[in-house]
Design a protein that fits this description.
With about 130 residues, this protein is an alpha+beta fold. It contains five helices and five strands. A five-stranded antiparallel beta sheet has the order 1-2-3-4-5.
Length: about 130
């Protein structure tokens, strides 16, 4: 998808048209900090509206750029509290809801974890597919 297509696609899911994105540099720093290469569709999302966006189906969840560093830690803490395996290497938590469930990217796909479960569940083949759900 080109830049205009991404923007139109993501804007269609926003409650209001007030959005604020990250810079390419901020996304690159985030990747270096966590030792990951984020999928291109997720990078586009962050650049277009990663700092501020009122996305209807994510109300009550943490998913914006200012929370991403915390999400990595919160995901690890939830797994430790459930005596679960660690997150896979090169994975990246993209959303947490109410502290008991989260989604993460790994090898381009989106996985899900719910407190009380004993394994990760592959839910979507891409960030874009997850975003549309």
């Amino acid at each position: 998808m080109n830049e205009q297509t991404y923007e139109a696609f993501y804007q269609a899911h926003v409650e209001t048209h007030k959005v604020l994105g990250c810079s390419e540099n901020e996304v690159s720093v985030l990747e270096r900090m966590h030792g990951v290469r984020l999928p291109e569709d997720y990078r586009r999302f962050l650049v277009l509206m990663g700092r501020e966006a009122d996305i209807r189906h994510l109300i009550g969840s943490h998913y914006l750029f200012p929370q991403l560093n915390d999400l990595q830690q919160w995901g690890k803490e939830l797994l430790a509290g459930c005596q679960m395996q660690e997150l896979p290497e090169n994975s990246f938590v993209i959303m947490m809801h109410q502290g008991y469930q989260f989604y993460f990217l790994w090898n381009g796909a989106v996985y899900y974890f719910l407190e009380g479960k004993t394994e990760f569940e592959r839910r979507f083949d891409s960030f874009t597919e997850w975003f549309c759900c």
